[in-house]
Specification:
With 125 residues, the protein is α+β, with helices and mostly antiparallel strands. Strands 1-2-4-3 form a four-stranded antiparallel beta sheet, with helices on one face. β1 and β2 form a beta hairpin. The radius of gyration is 14 Å and the shape is globular. The termini are far apart.
Length: 125
């Protein structure tokens, strides 16, 4: 999808529909939608990408959900040491990812010219 601010909404809607079709439980679905929103927004605002690619994988045993956001950025993503204050509008995205995901990280993308930021959740306990 194009790297526009409106792409976060498109990604959320698409992911929500897919997870409902896979019958992923409500709490996990909500967490996954929020993770996709934060990862998409970060890619759009901070990487200079012209496009981003969002991927979802449900493992064969349907216990793990992997979310991937591929962009054209080349700098690996690390947890931020800065914590946003109560009056700041930005700066909470990676903190939310860190808190919601069971595991997360970044690597060089095999599907785009830059990197992939991924997060994993327990889909069906």
């Amino acid at each position: 999808m194009p790297a526009l601010r409106t792409s976060a909404r498109s990604a959320r809607d698409t992911v929500r529909d897919r997870l409902r079709a896979w019958e992923v439980p409500g709490d996990t679905c909500c967490d996954a939608v929020l993770l996709v929103s934060e990862l998409t927004t970060n890619a759009v605002l901070h990487t200079g990408s012209g496009r981003v690619l969002c991927g979802l994988t449900l493992t064969g045993d349907e216990r793990r959900l992997r979310i991937e956001l591929h962009d054209e950025g080349r700098v690996p993503v690390h947890p931020t040491a800065h914590r946003a204050g109560p009056g700041e509008e930005n700066g909470r995205g990676l903190f939310l990812v860190q808190q919601l995901a069971d595991r997360w990280g970044s690597a060089r993308s095999t599907r785009a010219e830059g990197k992939v930021v991924w997060a994993e959740l327990t889909a069906h306990p």
